[in-house]
Structure formats: C-alpha cells, structure tokens
Amino acid sequence: MAFPHRPDAPELPDFSMLKRLARDQLIYLLEQLPGKKDLFIEADLMSPLDRIASVSILKQHEVDKLYKVENKPVLSSSEQSSGYPRGATCWAQCPCCREGSPWSEQARLWRGWERSAGREEQMVKELCFLVRPRIKNMRYIANLVNADKLAGRTRKYKVIFSPQKFYACEMVLEEEGIYGDVSCDEWAFSLLPLDVDLLSMELPEFFRDYFLEGDQRWINTVAQALHLLSTLYGPFPNCYGIGRCAKMSHELWRNLEEEEDSETKGRKPEIGHIFLLDRDVDFVTALCSQVVYEGLVDDTFRIKCGSVDFGPEVTSSDKSLKVLLNAEDKVFHEIRNEHFSNVFGFLSQKARNLQAQYDRRRGMDIKQMKNFVSQELKGLKQEHRLLSLHIGACESIMKKKTKQDFQELIKTEHALLEGFSIRDSTSYIEEHIDRQVSPIESLRLMCLLSITENGLIPKDYRSLKTQYLQSYGPEHLLTFSNLRRAGLLTEQAPGDTLTAVESKVSKLVTDKAAGKITDAFSSLAKRSNFRAISKKLNLIPRVDGEYDLKVPRDMAYVFSGAYVPLSCRVIEQVLERRSWQGLDEVLRLLNCSELAFTGGTKDDKAPSESLRLILVVFLGGCTFSEISALRFLGREKGFRFIFLTTAVTNSARLMEAMSEVKA
Amino acid sequence: MDCYTANWNPLGDSAFYRKYELYSMDWDLKEELRDCLVAAAPYGGPIALLRNPWRKEKAASVRPVLDIYSASGMPLASLLWKSGPVVSLGWSAEEELLCVQEDGVVLVYGLHGDFRRHFSMGNEVLQNRVLDARIFHTEFGSGVAILTGAHRFTLSANVGDLKLRRMPEVPGLQSAPSCWTTLCQDRVAHILLAVGPDLYLLDHATCSTVTPPGLAPGVSSFLQMAVSFTYRHLALFTDTGYIWMGTASLKEKLCEFNCNIRAPPKQMVWCSRPRSKERAVVVAWEKRLMVVGDAPESIQFVLDEDSYLVPELDGVRIFSRSIHEFLHEVPVASEEIFKIASMAPGALLLEAQKEYEKESQKADEYLREIQELGQLTQAVQQCIEAAGHEHRPDMQKSLLRAASFGKCFLDRFPPDGFVRMCQDLRVLNAIRDYHIGIPLTYSQYKQLTIQVLLDRLVLRRLYPLAIQICEYLRLPEVQGVSRILAHWACYKVQQKDVSDEDVARAINQKLGDTPGVSYSDIAARAYGCGRTELAIKLLEYEPRSGEQVPLLLKMKRSKLALSKAIESGDTDLVFTVLLHLKNELNRGDFFMTLRNQPMALSLYRQFCKHQELETLKDLYNQDDNHQELGSFHIRASYAAEERIEGRVAALQTAADAFYKAKNEFAAKATEDQMRLLRLQRRLEDELGGQFLDLSLHDTVTTLILGGHNKRAEQLARDFRIPDKRLWWLKLTALADLEDWEELEKFSKSKKSPIGYLPFVEICMKQHNKYEAKKYASRVGPEQKVKALLLVGDVAQAADVAIERRNEAELSLVLSHCTGATDGATADKIQRARAQAQKK
C-alpha cells in the first residue's frame, strides 16, 4: 500500500547532525553563565527545544527551574513576592519532574502549576531567557529586571536570542534602561529536523511578517540556514527559485558563500538541486482542504513541531497523549501519504495481520514462545498501540468531517478550482458565513474564491464582507484590509487600470534597489490568473470515469484527483527542464517574470547520485499535502525530495496569521 | 672548494665558527659609530643611528639627525631630531623605533621615520631623569627598562599595553650599577644588576642577592653582562678578565674562560644556535673580537673598524662603517659535509655528484659506498639541510644538485622537503638581496614565519616583492595577496599629493574584486587621514553594502548609509541606521526620509506598533495614509479605549479617515458599528445581560434567546440583515431554545428563503423527529428525498425517488436501506430501476 522508493533512489543525508550542533551550542551558551540559574523559555520555543535537549541535559548544566514566558501583562511589583511576574509559570518544581524524563511528556502535568507565592529565594540566582527576538519579549524581560531593581535585588541576566539577535531588541532593552544589566547571546538554532526529509525553521511568524508586514528580517535567517546546510552537506550544484523573497534569500546566501568560499570549495555535493519557492506564488494549494492522512491530521488536530496531541476521543481513555509523527512510527509512515479514503482499509488490513501474528502464539512450543516474547512481542505491542491510536484518529476525523458536511465543502472547493458554477459556490460561502459555521473556514473559502476568480466581483466583495462582519464582528475590517494587502482577498478591478499599475510596478522591479521595496505595491497589482495558469500547466486532470485513489497516476491524488498542486507542478516542470526555459508564459501569469532565477555552482564533478536529491525550500510555509505530492513525484521519477520550510502550515494557520483578533 | 673551510675557526674539539660577509655597507657615514647611538633590530632588521648625541659636549646648536638604514645600509629615513635628549634607542618586535628621552618620554617612530605615538615612563622617571635604558623583547612584545638617576628601575614588559612597574630598591645602593640587564623568566621580567662584587636580582617585590655558582674568586667588579637571545643563558665579564658562563637562573655554570684582558669590553653577546650544545660568547673591544666558549683557546679576530654587534637567534651580526658580517657556529650538516676529509654520507654524495658532472666513474663508487651503508636517505637530507644554511647561492645550488642527484637512487623519497627548501631558499635569496637588505638565515626565517616576513616587507613598502612571494608560495589569497594589496591601498590613500579620483582609480585597478579585500577598511583609513570624499569613492567599490554602512554613519552620511543598508538586505543594519537617523534629524525630516524608503518605513512601523503607537499615527498622518489611519483607529477602538464614548469617538475618527481614503465600504461598516455599540449599550441598560462587543448576528441571537423577538426584528430591519441570514439565525436560536411552537409559527410566517430542509436538519439535530417530520413534507421536491431520509422514512423516500426517476437519489435511498426492515423497499427500488432500464 505504501509505495516503496525505487531501488536506485538516493540515500537521504543524515540531518541528526543539525540537532547535535544546536544542542552543543546551547550547552556552550548555558555554560557561559556559570552557577545555578533559572531558565525562562518562550512558549514558541518549547516544542523545538524539546526536540533538541531534555530537561536532564538542562539540569546537568545547572538550570534550576524552568519558566514559561507567557507575555501576560505583568502586574505591579508589589504583588510579586517571588520577584517573578505572575505570567511566569514554573515548570520544573513540581515533584513529577525532578529528574530525567523528556519534559514534553510532562508538560501537560506541569501546565498551570503556578509557583507558590511567598517562598522567598534564599539565594539570588541568575536568570537566563531563551526567546525569539521579539519586542514584546524585551518588554517582559525589562519589567522583570526593573521589578528586581525596585526590590533591591541584584543578579545577572542573560538573554539568548534564537535564531538571531535583532538590533531592534537591543534598542528596546536600552530604551527600558536595562541594557547594561543584561548580556545578550545568540543561539543560531534555525533548522530543526522534524523528520528524515523535513527540516523546519519553526518560524510561523515568517508568513505574516514578510507577506503582510513587508518585514524582511527573517530573510537573513533563511540565508544563514542555507549557508549552514551547504557547509555541512556540500554545495548545491543547481539552484532554482521563484518569488521575491526566494530571490533575496538566494542573493544574501550567495554573498555569505562568497565571503568564505574557500571552505566549501572542492567539497563533493550531497544535494544536487535546491529549489526556493515563495508561498505567495501558490496560495491556492495552501488554502485547500487536505485529504491526505498527514494533512488531515494536521487540519484536524494540529501537528505541532512534528508531534500531535491526541485527545481522549482518540486515545479512548481519559488522558490525552502526545505522539511523535514521523518515519519512525511504522504505521504512520505507511499511511501518511495516503488519500484518506484508503486509510481505513489499510488499517483494518494491518489489524488483521497483527492479529494473525499474535495468533501464531497458539501453536508454539516453549522455546518458540520464549523467542516470541523476547523478540517480537514488544514490537507487536508497539505496533498495536500505534494502530489503535491511528484508528482512533481516523474515527475522530470521520466524525468531525461528517458533522460539517464535508462532502459539500469539498465539492464547493473542487468547483472553485475547476471554475464552474461559481454562483452556487458563492451562495454556499454566503450560507457558510450566515450560519456561523467557522470564521476561519469562511475566510478560507472567500480567499479561495477570490484567487481562483482573479478577485471577487464588486457586488460579491461587498456583500460577503458585510455578511462576515455581521457574523463575526467589526474588527475583521482589519482582517480584510490585511487579506487585501497580501493579495488573498481582492476586488476585481476594471482590466486596463490594473495592467497599467502592473507595468509600472514591473518597471520598478527591474531596478535593483526598488525591486526590494515594492512589495506594498506589487500585491495590490497582483492578479492571480489562476484559471489561465491552471490551463497552461494542466492542473485539473481530465479523467474519464473514477479517479483511482488507490493507485494514483499523478500528484492530483492529494486532492482526490481534482487538482495538481500548483507549487509542486512548477517544481516538477523546472526540474524536468533543468531551467525556467519555456515557462515564460507561466511566469508572466504568476507575476514572477523578474523573480525567477537559476544559479548555483556548475559542477561537473557532481555525482549523479546527488543530482537526484532535491532540497525544496518553502518560504512562508508548506503544507503536508505538498510534501505528500512531492514525495509521490519523487517515487515516480526516482528522486528524493528534502523539504525545508519556515514552518509547516495549513489553510487555518494562514488565515489565522491574517486575522485580527481582539486581545 | 679546497678553501671552502678557510673561514672556519675551531673552538675546542667539536665546534667551528665562521664569519662571512653579508653586505658591504652602502651608507656613507660621516661619523664614527662610536659617536652615535646605535640600535639594530634582530632578524636582519633595520639599523637606527642617532648622530651627534648629547653625551658629547658638542655645540648644542646643531640639531642631531636620526637616520634609519636597512641592514645593507640603504637609507630608509632621515629626520632632524627636534625633541629632547635621547638616552637610548631600540627596536620593538613590530619594528618600531623606540627612542627613550632623558625625561622618560618614549617616542615611537615607524620604519620610515613617521612619528607614531609617545608615552611616558612615569613621574618618578621624569623627576630623576633617565640614566640608562634598555629595550628588550619578551613573548608578550617589547619592553622598556629604565635606570633612573636615583638608581631605581622602572620597567614595562609590553609597550603595546603600557603597565609601568617600579622595581624595588636595592638596599644601600649609592652609585650606578656597573652593569645590568633584563632577564625574563617564567614570563616575568626581572632585572639583574652588578654593584661591585655583588649581584642583585630584582623582581616585582623583592631584591635578592645572588651568587653565580663556581665563580672564580677575586672578583671585585663585574664589567659587562650578556643574556642570550632566548633568555636562557647568562655571561658575566669581571674586572679580572674572567668570563663566567651559565644559566640565566644562576643555578648552573656551563663554563668559564679567562681572557686576561682587563679592559672593559665594548659589547658582549651570546653566539649560539638553537638546539646546539655549544655555547659561546662574542666579546668585542675597540680593536679586537673574541669568541670564547668551553675551550681553553678562544677565536680571535682583529677589528679594523669600529664595529657593532647584533645578537641573533643563531649567531651574531657585526657591522661597521664598511662591512656587515655574520658570525655563527657552523651547523652540523654543513660541518659533516665540508669538514676536511669527512666521510659523512652527505659529503660523499656531494662528491659523487661532482664526479658525475665530470662524467667520471668515481661517481658510481661514491654512490655505492653510501648505498652499501644504507645512508643514502640520510645523505640527501644532509645535503638539503646544509643547503639551507649556506649563504652563497652557488653553494646552495651545488648542495641541492647533490640532493637531487641522490634522490634519483631512492625509491619513494618524499619530495616535500626538497621542494620546500628550494622555495624557502628562493625567498631567502630574494630578501637578502642588497636592495631589500633583510639578511635572514634559514633558522631565523623559520622562527619568524612567512606571515611575519610578509608583514615586514609590507612595512618596508615592498609590496611587489611581497606579492611575488605570495604568488610563488601559492599562499591563499586572503592571507597573502589580498592582505598585501589592502596594505598597499591603505598606504596609497595617505599620499596627499594625489587627487581623490586618481587614488580611487589606482586602487580599484590594482585590487579589482580580489577576494578578501575590504574596501571599507581602506576607506576607513582614508577617512582617518581626513579624506572623506575619497572614502566615499572607495566605499562605492565595496561589494558588500553592509560593510559600507558603519563608516558612512561615522562620516555622517546617514541617508546614503540608509540606502546602502537597504541594498544589503540586512534589516538589522537598516534598523541601526534608522535609529541613528531618528536621533540625528528632526521628526519631519526623518519622516520624509522614511517616505522615500518603503522598506525602512515598514520596518519602522513594525517597531512603532510595539513601542511607539503615537509615532505610528503621526507617520500615517504625515503620509496622508487614511486607510491605515482608519485601521489604526479601529484597532484603538477595541484595544486602547475602554469607555464606550471613547470607543465611539475612535470609530468616528476611523470612519472619517475611511471617507478620506475613499473607502466607503469601510466607512459605512464603521458607522454601523458605532450605531451597534450605542444600541448594545442601551440594550444592556434596558434588558441587562451582556451585549457589548457581540457581533450583529450574535446580538440578534442573544435577543431571540432572551425572548425579545420584537427587538430582534427591529434590529434586523435597522441593520438590514438579509432575509436568509435572519431565517438561519432564528431557526438556530429557536431550536436551541427548543421553542417548537414559535418555530412552527415562524416557519409559516412566510415562504422560507432557505427552504425547509434546514428545518428538518435542525430538528433532527435536537433529536426531535416529530417536529422534523412536520417540515419534511414542506421540503421542495429537489431535496425531499434527503429530508425524508433524514427523518428516517426510507419507504417514502423511495417512493419520491422513484417518482422523480432520479438515479442518484435512488442509489442514496438504497444505501440507507438496512437489511431486514427495508427489504421490501429495496426490492421496490430494484424493480423501478429495472423498469427504467427497460424503457
């Protein structure tokens, strides 16, 4: 059922090195601050950190207690007997977590374990903050330090920024008057291997920061990450990219390489191609409901940092359970890329096999039994546990999906993708909004409609927005303004004025300096041209009869055979041609004529083995559906894809990033 | 070659010393050396002469001249001495000339006579004047030790990081010591001084008397002392003409010698080579030079001229007005090869090669002899090593030829040693050249390393030679060529007589895009010389925009810095410049600058959003960005304001802004929200409960749930809620209330705009089959089957489907048929299907 790779498929590089590197660096940083210290960790960094270092490692390096930086407003100092703001939740003081055991598994128990007030510290410890470079974190730290000062406590503070320090943060520390009290460091931990073929930068804010706010700070981080990869795994002989961010990252990265090129020169490449792709090249794929198992699990339960919390309805007990989802989970590995309709069948088959293996016991003599117990039983039990979990997950998904009339929804999506009965779809969306089914879903459908139709016609644009505001409140006026700026939800404008702006912008774009600054305009002028692209790239497969989801023929299977993901198709086409040649029309339609590039060190020595390893970099996030589709493509063509993404995303996350919510 | 060993002088049984000429001096000295202060730097370094020093009671009206020459006597610099009287000169490890003045001020000059800096050795020195001073070298750098008029010592172990240390007093010291020197042990500098028959050792805190072991009796005074290059050995010359040689720790005696000359020597220096067992001291008097060691006899040379000794790592340089010589112990390899009648393998190999050139069969004999002893490898190595120690290129060549000849008869002899020696010798011969004048020996060169040598060439502005060496040795560009070019460029920008354009062009032509060259460093140097325009021109060549920014900021070219920072793509840098600008410019100008740089603007907005909300508003105001201004106030209406009046006011401002932005939709929506807010407030007052901040939809729902149907309808009319929404809303709310009566009433109020299927669905959701059935009958034909199936009436559903002859519906019904109960229905459908097919 799970398709094996072709026997000649290349081996994946060993990415565990990245983990070791990050861990060693962290330990080094912790040792810079000798003596006992309390560690404050930003919530967003907890899961990634969890994959890198366990509590016992932290404790070995004299970390006493762990707190979570929660960015709750800090109360005035008189209310804090402990010297820490209320927002800080102690994690590691409760008895359950004194020693050892990976802390994520216990996080649930610790959560909400408020530090008992009034117990004054005997010794003033040093404080260490492990945070993302965000201004609000700086304010949090400043409040804490200033509270200490008021209380007459003096201690050492260290702020470790991950993955890098921003000047703006130091600036805030200075403005708050504590720059001299804290020392700053960087933990250049930007690449977390979530799976054997998936690296994540764990920067979900990248999407909003870059594509909405036009903030380019993270591009440097991307360039650094690419540089790290090329120093560890050899140069990339071929390089392709599309999108403004991709282009800038590529340029910065090249600069980095040039500055210290002597190191990588002459190294044998391990990865033959690298493909950089901006999320805004293809919003459509990211906005579709996912129907491949891994994607569905993400849509339903939210996979966070490679693991998922299965609630009681899945585990069929009263506890929820945190499960790592990666290639090591044998059951999951076989179904992750499958269309959901196949998964049940597969799981029941698997269950029968498992039963059969258990049943073998019956005819055994003592010796065989001993063998069985010592060698196979553990594996079987493990498999059994996983199997029941995934069956539980499937049932839960089924329940949720049928409740919301999933079939109708999918039908509407397919209609939008294929571009028929637009009116029906529009009224479906309207009804969806009127019934307050889900604010995020409604937004998603509106965006999908807008992009596939080159913007909404003015009447619909107004009425849908009005409906939405009536359902969910006026603050979404800002959400719509965001969506418009990002080009996700726009109004159809009369043809010629738009092209005028377009040509003006593209003129600007050719100028190097201006090219980097026109984001604000370009999104306004951007037409999605989805229909034309779809035709050009043949994204809607013509099928006679039923699409066989069991034995898929193309990448469309990840969307039930209705649509080939645009991003994946572009990658496929470029890899086939080894350049953008012949894709001019597509690029024009994608508004990326100036933003597609090829490059890399043309190296004839590159062994053919490496040429079939391809690193795909998604700037702004990628979905599990895209990953599945490319894995499929890889199996078909004998490639292996490696994914590097700023974060794993899905339609809900994209919409949430654009939404304004009341604080 | 018979006379080759003619200049070899045996000292004892085991060692030979030889003296050979390095250069005949090119300088045209008018004065005698004895009339000058002389300082010569080790490692073949430059020589400084300060003529006409003050100690001679000459006419003070004539200003003395400070001359700097290379080791070959080529003039490097000459300047009139305008400062105070100088007591001592010396070279630092960086080849800077330190001139110690009488008042304790030390002036530092470069190799080309350029003044670098000065520092003082402290007040005590100033008051008591300098009696004597020494410049010495330690592993940290170069130090200065001073003997003051009060017979106290002050020293600094590293002039680069000046820390003055005043040494303890020697008890009862009345007169100046007869001689003194600095010792360096365990990384600490000490001072050893002799007063009469006593020796004192000064360290940080204490002054202790020391006695050299095995010192001959009858010493009443020490006239001279010398410490070896590596601070390991010490030699003492007494007034009895006796020389004691031992370790610098004064724990062990090595040997002694009695030269029977009671006159105080002019100079005494050690002459030994690293890793050699032989120890020897060179003592110089006015007309005589003596090499003494562990041997009953000494080697004597006559000095024709006034000479000066320079201790080196592996020997002694001796220069006079006309000649510059090198005296050293003959290295083992050379000795083995060239010693008369030597049968060492190297000697035989050299002989064999010579015979071979003469085409004599003796070559074979010699070679066989070596091979029989299995010493060919050793022979080759000996020849290579000896070549390194030869000063004359013809000797180097002949030894290398011998080595290369011998190599042919060896399998797998690693060639690296040979190749490296050839390269090293080529470099050495090049720098020993008369015009360059750095007479390094092979051992010194190895000790110094090629990097330091390159630095010294750069210091002498011998850029082409340095580059040639780099290219010849294939040094990596970053370490080699680019570094030298960068130095050259830094020198170039100091040439004030050349125009900015010419300098910039010349530099760019030479440097091009050589990797590792930092144009910004060169520009910084230009700026340091006060050539701002040149600096800006140079910065334009800098490929990494990021590197340009700090200097531009320093030069107050902030706006240019901003655009460069933006070009670099490094937002952090942009931010740095931004805050710089913010402090530098007034607000209006700052905003105007931002306006032209959208990327910087968005960055600054981000910052303001978190730190300075008011500034953000000002920014939008300045730009007339009414759309964003509207959004800003909308956000304020729920995030910043608490009171309802404040919120409405904020919304009003927002609405005005939206009108200005020609965004009527947003303006209308905002006005609606104002109305809604006011209304919700009234509702709360009149009805109680929570209404504020609910959406319109939720407000109406809450009203219905609270039983205020009238008000709900009024609200729906006021806000023009579309019928469809209202129906959905009422339907859901009433079902939630399980107010079936009202629901039925509502359903009959007029024809449902959303059909009746939702009624069925919602009743079923509340598990009210009875009510559901009521509505199922009213569902339109299109959805009837679905409705009937929902209420579980399979049979009727089948009837309808059959009637409508709809294949899809038939299948749907069929799929709902469960085994026993619906058997009949299923049959019915099958029949109907069969019939349909027949037709």
Whole-number average pLDDT of chain B? 85
Task: Provide the helix percentage of chain A.
Answer: 40-55%
Low-confidence stretches of chain B: none
Distance between termini of chain B?
127 Å
Q: Rg of chain B, please?
A: 49 Å
Number of strands of chain B: 29
Strand content of chain A: 5-15%
What order do the strands of the largest sheet of chain A run in, or round the barrel if closed? 7-8-15-14-10-9-13
Compute the average pLDDT of chain A.
Answer: 81
Strand content of chain B: 15-25%
Biggest interface: chains and residue counts?
Answer: A-B, 54 and 52 residues
Specify the overall morphology of chain B. elongated
Secondary-structure-based class of chain A equals alpha/beta
Question: Helix count of chain A?
Answer: 30
Helix count of chain B equals 33
Q: pLDDT under 50 segments of chain A (min length 5)?
A: 73-83, 85-122, 496-525
Family (chain B): Belongs to the VPS16 family.
GO cellular component, one term (chain B): early endosome
Protein name (chain B): Vacuolar protein sorting-associated protein 16 homolog
Organism (chain B): Myotis myotis
